[in-house]
Design brief:
Layout (H helix, E strand, L loop, with lengths): L5 E6 L4 E7 L6 E7 L4 E5 L4 E7 L2 E5 L2 E4 L5
Antiparallel strand pairs: 1-4, 1-6, 2-3, 2-5, 6-7
Length: about 70
């Protein structure tokens, strides 16, 4: 696994939830953060984190591009 893969999440509203999901046979929530408007979180995929779920209006930036949760692209 490439430990340098990360994403940047910028909240576009109050209370954006960022949820880390585990890797392995059973996928479970293992970490949550709540962001206020304009707060930024840098998250990295690890041996324990296989997915990140985001609830609320946010901008997500990665090496694959930028996605806005409130827009159909």
């Amino acid at each position: 696994m490439d430990q340098t893969d990360f994403i940047v999440i910028k909240a576009k509203e109050q209370g954006v939830q960022v949820i880390g999901l585990t890797r392995g046979q059973d996928t479970k929530f293992h970490h949550t953060e709540k962001l206020d408007k304009n707060e930024v979180l840098i998250a990295q995929f690890t041996d324990h984190t296989s997915a990140i779920k985001i609830r609320g209006k946010a901008m997500i930036m990665s090496k694959h591009g930028t996605v806005h949760t409130d827009k159909d692209e």
